[in-house]
Amino acid sequence: MNIKTICMGFALLLASLPAANADVIFNNWNPDAFFGCSETGPTCAASPSFTLSQTTLITNVDTAYSASSEGSVPPSTVSIFDASSTLVGSALSTDNGGFFTGNFQTAAFSLVLTSGTYTVSVSDNHWAFNPESAFQGFAAVDGTVVTPEPATWGMMMGIGLFGLEAARRRRNRKA
Fold this sequence. Notes:
The protein is α+β, with helices and mostly antiparallel strands.
């Protein structure tokens, strides 16, 4: 058996694994009435923070904005910062419906984050929020934990051992 056959078998095995579905990692939205920055004076909502306990692939960040019928909220840049305020990723949001244009927006990410605390920020800081959200802007973060499951570790170890055995046999043939 040659290395090409081993690689093709490994690729087929990986392709046959089921894809993981994204889970809600953080969500502080609630049904209470919300405030917007324009309604509360110069003080706006704080940017929401979330904590990860495992390495996670972030796939979407949904945000809610205060918009009135007189205007709409244009797409904004949604950014994620780590605990030291270093930008780790950003994406442009798109309209996701709502009462008025731009009330709810979604930003698509493909960002792997390690365990730690992160903050979501929007470029225009025009959050919708309320006391139940601890005066943090409404946000929902979707993602998938990327730590392999025990069965995956077993599969990877088996393939590794198979490769080591193939290499050992090749060396013994040359000797």
